[in-house]
């Protein structure tokens, strides 16, 4: 998978690049609008991450350029602007998602994977991890071909964990992924633990190994080892 | 009271005073002249009567003019001549009428006579009537003309003023408009219009600056925060870190997350206060928003074993849909956060009123203080303390009222709108 990151903040760009490199994605970086347009017109990307405020131009123009020339490319806007107008304009122009800074890299990763999955062909839409197989369109989860019934939150949690497999996920990032702005309603993260516990139990009941590891004081990690 | 009405009031008071004074003055001066005339006539009569008495001994009937009367009474001693005024009964008119009498003494053939000449003063009464009538007529005429003039003035001369007022009334700074007007022949109105134009011009510029500043400030703060958070997340993946370091990192991450949320909430608050969310014209129904929100919060509600009761009708205030979301969201999350485990939330929505009641720990301060920014009762560290301040601000800019009452274990938040 090939990504293009259009972001003027070098430190943030490096973090994002490092994060996706671990995912074995090729993540190219354009620090300004001019470079971004050059790259867009030369190479093909699966997904482009666009910051709206660039030193020499408006990220929305880059979105327009992409939509005109390569309508199949997934686009995610990452912006510090949380204004409703920009969000609506961005989504109307055909971007697939809009993420407000600051965000969790794990959240960005999950969104990128979702966009790529939606844009790819039927066959590769399936999510596989170890014994787990997920059909995102049907919201169907199979373990060794047996269906398991998950609640909406448990399903979201599982998809999120798989998208960020082999990584340490903080409790805040999980809470925010599942409850968005309501995440701060939870005075402690026991609540996540309930969901994690239920999910783990359902998976293990169907014969899944214990993929979920708890990392003391931080959060969780989903991995096969 | 309209300016023209106030001017009219003073005009009327002044004219009434002037006219009354004028009437009084007029009355006295004419009365004085009449008195002089009457006195002169009485003196003439006296001269005639004296002459007749001395030379003819007998008074001819025609000697006095009609309306005057003459009376002769023999007296023992003469006295001083006197002019008196008294009311006498007039049998013909069947009423008392004012007379002026000249009393003097004349000696005829050794006998003193008191001679009284009475003159009817009916001119004075007529004069009074004439004066009152004239003044009343002038006052009525003045009133009518002033009223007519005023309505004409307000239609014609004051038209540009009302036009300016109307455009100021409907002025919304969020639209960045500058009010401009056509040239006016009236100096004051032209000055007013110019001032309004300059004022709105400055206002629009300042507003634009402020908006850009808040947006930029938010951007400038969010970016370093994004860097911090992304670096922390990168560090978490470093397997060589010790547990204690991970815990510290986790705490840093939590604080940075909180800072980011705080910044976003403050930004939203500023935006609402700057009225960047304009209400539409149609009321929006809160029902779908409440239902969606309750669905989103479902598992939180279940986990805390809270019972939710709703009695809602499809109605709602006129407001920006995004603000309605924030308002409902903040009221409901507040009702959950400050609830007790196993508590209750009552949501009632009827025409003009949304009430969210929840059970909770009693508070010991004035409930209205809960609307202050960063005010928290107890130690809910996850709360930013901005939820109710946001809700209050939303209501304020949209013309709704938000009240907070407590009733035993119940906390009652009520939104009312016209």
Summarize the structure.
Chain A is an alpha/beta fold and 225 residues long. Chain A contains eight helices and 14 strands.
Q: Please, could you describe this protein's structure?
A:
The complex is a heterodimer of chains A (225) and B (418). Chain A is an alpha/beta fold and 225 residues long. Chain A folds into 2 domains: 2-119, Response regulator (Rossmann fold, 3-Layer(aba) Sandwich); 126-222, Winged helix-like DNA-binding domain superfamily/Winged helix DNA-binding domain (Arc Repressor Mutant, subunit A, Orthogonal Bundle). Helices cover 42% and strands 24% of the residues of chain A. Chain A has helices at residues 10-22, 33-42, 59-69, 84-92, 105-119, 152-163, 171-179, 190-205; strands at 2-6, 26-30, 47-51, 53-54, 57-58, 74-79, 97-100, 127-129, 132-135, 140-143, 146-147, 168-170, 212-215, 219-222. Chain A has a 5-stranded parallel β-sheet, sandwiched between helices. A 4-stranded antiparallel β-sheet of chain A has the order 8-9-10-11, with helices on one face. Chain A has a 3-stranded antiparallel β-sheet with strand order 12-14-13. In chain A, a hairpin with a 4-residue loop joins strand 9 (132-135) and strand 10. The model of chain A has no long low-confidence stretch (mean pLDDT 86). By secondary structure, chain B is of the alpha+beta class. Chain B folds into 3 domains: 3-148, no CATH class; 165-273; 287-416, Histidine kinase-like ATPase, C-terminal domain (Heat Shock Protein 90). Chain B contains 9 helices and 9 strands. Chain B has a 5-stranded mixed β-sheet. Chain B has a 4-stranded antiparallel β-sheet with strand order 1-4-3-2, covered by helices on one side. Chains A and B meet through helix 1, helix 7 and helix 8 of A and helix 4, helix 5, helix 7 and helix 8 of B.
């Amino acid at each position: 998978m090939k990504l293009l990151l259009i972001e003027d903040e070098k430190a943030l760009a490096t973090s994002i690049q490092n994060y996706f490199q671990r995912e074995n994605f090729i993540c190219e970086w354009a620090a300004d609008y001019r470079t971004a347009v050059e790259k867009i017109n030369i190479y093909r990307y699966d997904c482009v991450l666009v910051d709206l405020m660039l030193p020499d131009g408006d990220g929305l123009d880059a979105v327009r350029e992409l939509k005109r020339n390569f309508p199949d490319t997934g686009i995610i806007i990452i912006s510090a602007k949380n204004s409703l107008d920009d969000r609506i304009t961005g989504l109307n122009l055909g971007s697939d998602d809009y993420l407000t800074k600051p965000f969790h890299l794990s959240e960005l990763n999950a969104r990128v994977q979702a966009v790529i999955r939606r844009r790819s062909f039927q066959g590769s839409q399936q999510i596989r991890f170890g014994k787990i197989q997920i059909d995102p369109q049907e919201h169907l989860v199979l373990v060794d071909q047996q269906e398991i019934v998950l609640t909406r939150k448990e399903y979201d949690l599982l998809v999120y964990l798989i998208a960020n497999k082999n990584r340490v996920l903080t409790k805040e990032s999980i809470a925010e992924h599942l409850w968005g702005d309501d995440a701060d309603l939870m005075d402690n993260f026991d609540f996540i633990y309930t969901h994690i516990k239920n999910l783990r139990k359902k998976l293990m009941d169907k014969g899944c190994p214990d993929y979920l590891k708890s990392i003391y004081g931080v959060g969780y990690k989903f991995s096969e080892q | 009271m309209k300016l023209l009405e106030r001017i009219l009031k003073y005009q009327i008071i002044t004219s009434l005073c002037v006219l009354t004074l004028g009437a009084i003055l007029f009355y006295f001066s004419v009365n004085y002249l009449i008195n002089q005339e009457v006195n002169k006539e009485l003196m003439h009569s006296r001269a005639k009567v004296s002459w007749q008495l001395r030379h003819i001994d007998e008074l001819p009937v025609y000697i006095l003019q009609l309306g005057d009367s003459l009376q002769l009474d023999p007296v023992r001693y003469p006295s001083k001549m006197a002019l008196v005024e008294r009311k006498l009964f007039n049998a013909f008119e069947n009423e008392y009428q004012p007379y002026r009498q000249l009393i003097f003494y004349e000696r005829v053939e050794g006998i003193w006579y008191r001679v009284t000449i009475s003159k009817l003063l009916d001119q004075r009464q007529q004069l009074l009537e004439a004066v009152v009538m004239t003044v009343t007529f002038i006052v009525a005429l003045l009133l009518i003309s002033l009223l007519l003039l005023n309505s004409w003035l307000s239609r014609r001369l004051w038209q540009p003023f009302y036009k300016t007022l109307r455009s100021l009334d409907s002025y919304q700074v969020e639209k960045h408009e500058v009010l401009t007007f056509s040239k006016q022949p009236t100096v004051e109105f032209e000055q007013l219009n110019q001032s309004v134009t300059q004022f709105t011009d400055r206002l629009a510029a300042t507003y634009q600056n402020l908006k850009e500043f808040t947006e930029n400030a938010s951007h400038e703060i969010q970016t370093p925060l994004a860097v911090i958070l992304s670096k922390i997340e990168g560090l978490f993946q470093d397997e060589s870190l010790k547990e204690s370091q991970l815990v510290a990192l986790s705490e840093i991450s939590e604080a940075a997350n909180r800072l980011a949320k705080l910044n976003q909430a403050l930004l939203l608050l500023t935006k609402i206060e700057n009225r960047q969310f304009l209400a539409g014209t149609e009321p929006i129904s809160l029902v779908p928003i409440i239902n969606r929100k309750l669905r989103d919060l479902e598992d939180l509600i279940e986990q805390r074993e809270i019972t939710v009761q709703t009695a809602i009708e499809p109605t709602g205030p006129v407001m920006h849909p995004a603000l309605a979301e924030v308002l409902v969201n903040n009221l409901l999350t507040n009702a959950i956060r400050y609830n007790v485990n196993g508590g209750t939330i009552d949501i009632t929505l009827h025409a003009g009123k949304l009430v969210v009641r929840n059970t909770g720990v009693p508070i010991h301060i004035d409930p209205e203080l809960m609307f202050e920014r960063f005010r928290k009762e107890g130690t809910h560290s996850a709360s930013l303390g901005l939820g109710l301040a946001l809700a209050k601000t939303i209501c304020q800019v949209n013309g709704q009222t938000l009240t907070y009452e407590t009733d035993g274990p119940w906390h009652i938040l009520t939104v009312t709108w016209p």
